[in-house]
């Protein structure tokens, strides 16, 4: 996932090299954290079923968990930037600001960040799903 983000950002001639490295590392970390969780969930869903079900389970679970973990990391980084303008921690105003900042970050990730998974991330997802389905036979 990090390689997919890196290639996309380099081809787009995006920002500075430091920012490209940071975003690539964010995607790589999200993918690395999501992979074992996605495989675990895919095993639960496809237990004792045909390889087609195993492939679909791996594809959906890995896709969903990778986007969720990477989006969550993006939202935490986004919130860390805006924390300086938020109310003191654990107040009602802080809670509202926290929820809406995280929701805004997740929305921005879905709109702007998912495109960085294509095409390399999608190819890796497809390959990992085939590998998982073959292991389940």
From TrEMBL:
Tell me if Transmembrane is a UniProt keyword of this record.
Answer: yes
Instruction: Give the UniProt keywords, A-Z.
Output: Membrane, Transmembrane, Transmembrane helix
User: Does Membrane appear among the keywords?
Assistant: yes
Can you tell me where the transmembrane regions are? Answer: 20-41, 53-76, 88-110, 116-133
Protein name from the UniProt record: Uncharacterized protein
Instruction: State the species of origin.
Output: Mesorhizobium helmanticense
